[in-house]
Design goal:
mainly beta, five-stranded antiparallel beta sheet, single chain, elongated, 14 strands, eight-stranded antiparallel barrel
């Protein structure tokens, strides 16, 4: 019930933010179609996009306490561990490729894209404190959780809205639904694991609702250069214990954030031929073969 309550509050907050953004976005007819050539006067309505950026896996919080008490055979309370967890994320490069479509009649979103991106991250949580030994005493010891996938792939469907504040310069809002998958790597705990609550390996697949905000400019060649910051607003599957966009990693929880430089390519419209299309018939006989034989006989006569 506590988790449901937290997520319900988050839904209310996200809904309020969304309504505020919609109120700030001008009507569709207030934004000129020339920004993305929605009427296809010069370019096609689809194009490719390349991205290069950085990925952060940030620990939220960075520190947490641990205290595990149990009742022994004499019905007395024993302490198995008592100490402090230090959680550390990582940073890394991120590359991606995408394909996007320009809406002919933009109302709320003026573009839709699907993007495949990849990178690496690592989460490490280290416990330092007192741990019960076999003799029942408390000794200083450490336990380490490591979550380090070899590759993280992200397939995301995104909805974009540009707010032009001067010719060729615009702000951009994004809303996305992404599927993240972790491939290879290692997930393990090392240390006195018997004195801690057992933890299952983290999930290698996640589905999350993502939000983004950035700045863009149209170049003289008709291409677009954007710098976008993105983060998970709500993790849908699996549901994190703390809710929101946090990712569970053994004892620690982490938030994924990206900063990407995006280069968008519009495709020129093909030239229209005045001669029209060739239907595939290079030449057609004027008379049927039977009629041609009759004409040949008449010529001989």
């Amino acid at each position: 019930m506590k988790i449901i309550g937290k997520n319900w509050n988050l839904f209310i907050i996200l809904g309020s933010i969304g309504m505020a953004l919609v109120g700030l976005v001008p009507p569709a007819n207030a934004q000129p179609d020339i920004l993305f050539d929605a009427q296809r006067s010069q370019f096609r309505g689809t194009g490719w996009s390349l991205g290069l950026g950085a990925h952060w896996l940030q620990a939220v919080p960075k520190e947490s306490t641990s205290l595990l008490l149990i009742a022994n055979e004499s019905n007395e309370i024993d302490t198995l561990n008592y100490g402090l967890w230090n959680h550390n994320g990582s940073t890394g490069f991120r590359i991606g490729i995408g394909y996007w479509y320009v809406a002919k009649r933009p109302i709320l979103w003026d573009r839709i894209s699907i993007q495949l991106e990849g990178g690496k991250h690592q989460a490490v949580s280290e416990f330092i404190g007192l741990v019960a030994d076999s003799a029942g005493g408390m000794v200083l010891d450490t336990l380490t959780d490591v979550s380090a996938p070899g590759l993280v792939s992200e397939l995301t469907l995104r909805f974009h809205r540009a707010i032009e504040f001067k010719p060729d310069f615009f702000l951009e809002c994004q809303l996305g639904l992404g599927w993240d998958a972790e491939w290879g790597g290692s997930f393990h705990r090392s240390g006195p694991k018997a004195q801690f609550v057992p933890r299952a390996n983290p999930s290698r697949h996640r589905i999350a609702l993502e939000v983004g905000l950035g700045f863009g400019v149209r170049t003289r060649s008709g291409r677009y250069l954007r710098i976008i910051s993105q983060t998970d607003a709500l993790q849908l599957q699996p549901l994190a214990a703390d809710g929101g966009g946090r990712i569970d990693r053994y004892e620690g929880t982490f938030r994924s954030t990206h900063l990407t430089l995006q280069w968008d390519f519009l495709r020129d419209k093909p030239d229209i031929s005045c001669a029209g299309k060739n239907l595939g018939n290079e030449s057609m006989p004027l008379f049927e073969p039977k009629m041609q034989r009759k004409l040949k006989k008449r010529r001989r006569g």
